[in-house]
Amino acid sequence: xxxxxxxxxPGKNNAFTAKVEKISGQKLLACYQCGKCSAGCPMAAxxxxxxxxxxxxxxxxxxxxxLASRSIWTxxxxxTCNSRCPKDIKIAEVIESLRETAxxxxxxxxxxxxxxxxxxxRADLPPIATISAMRKLTS
Length: 139
Description:
Helix content: 40-55%
Number of domains: 2
Low-confidence stretches: none
């Protein structure tokens, strides 16, 4: 069996789905896969899994595949998906919850440590870069 084979066993992956729902504050089963989020996403062309597919995979508890995807890091949190969703699901928050889960599980250690940058260089950094780096360190 390869990684693209879908095996859904009721109850087996509910813990992951519940965790994503708790962190994101969203009800994943409200999504009926209309695809509007993916159709409007400016980063969709660069994603290996589209936003509506991310939600579907989270519904199915596909933790390993989601946390290994490039898409959760490609999302720029522009909130276009949120504004297009007819069910008012905040998909950007779902994606952020997946990033947080990956970071908390130690799956990534490539984030910027701003304290390794000299004070002179830090002074020239745009504030948003520093804030983003700190946010990633505290996720």
